[in-house]
């Protein structure tokens, strides 16, 4: 059973509750601004805030659910639900964008005068500033607590603040020039930007669900193995990794001396798991498939007291992402059907 860091669990949950609470408050502020001004641009911003609240609520549910430890039914845990949450949020953003276009395009051909723009601008300027700070908080917390849902929610909230600032600039022009047609035009531009953001969020979620390789983490993983490297770890290969919520899963093959006793092999596996996750500052599980060495490995084996060595140690196997994620250095010794 894999236990999660309780502090990180609470950090994720607190951030998710904060996102929902602040989202509801800012939605009320934006609806008040729309009521005072009648602006389509402000309405588009308010519609996005409705999406924020719904998406944040779903993210909260996902984070609460993903905090449950692995069990018999879900041996890899519930963490993938956070990626579903992120994809759901991206879909909501796209739906909101289409709704804004539906409202704003007819209004462009029949623009209406706006009222009390000074108060409306002050209200959405306030909401935009709060949203930007909330987005920074969610992204930072999500990265620290290993939460895909929080990171996606943070990027969405932060993009909402950029939308708000764009609306402010546009409405300021309406206020100064009296050109009411600028208002629905700004709303349409906001919608197009939201379509881009929603598609980006959904793409990121889909790559996570498909366990796409994270090159940055793989480089960090290989560096961690290199730091812990021992003479008996002759040739790691077929190294893979994927994430499920806050938990990181790793599997690899490892060539070890064929004369090692089972207890030594088991001790090596435990040592790698404990020390590697500590070095990476991660929690999770590592599965190691052990391969016995063959004579061709003698030249790259650094074990000095080997009783079956056929040739001296003359080369150092270079550990890189490319060499560790591919097959063994001497694949002819192994069944090609191995995973």
Structure description:
By secondary structure, the chain is mainly alpha-helical. It has 2 domains: 6-209, Alpha-lytic protease prodomain-like (Up-down Bundle), CATH 1.20.1510; 215-333, Alpha-Beta Plaits, CATH 3.30.70.1350. The protein is built from 9 helices and 3 strands. The protein has helices at 6-37, 40-66, 81-109, 117-144, 148-177, 182-209, 215-228, 262-280, 321-325, and strands spanning 235-244, 247-256, 283-292. It has a 3-stranded mixed sheet. Helix 3 runs parallel beside helix 5 (148-177), helix 3 packs antiparallel against helix 6 (182-209) and helix 5 packs antiparallel against helix 6 (182-209). The radius of gyration is 27 Å and the shape is elongated. The two termini are 24 Å apart. The model is unreliable at 331-339 (pLDDT under 50).
Quick structural summary:
The chain has nine helices and three strands.
Count of strand segments: 3
Q: Class of the largest domain in CATH? A: Mainly Alpha
Kindly report how far apart the N and C termini lie.
24 Å
Structural class: mainly alpha
What is the residue-averaged pLDDT?
81
- What spatial order of strands do you see in the largest sheet? 1-2-3
- CATH homologous superfamily (4th level) name of the largest domain: Cation efflux protein transmembrane domain
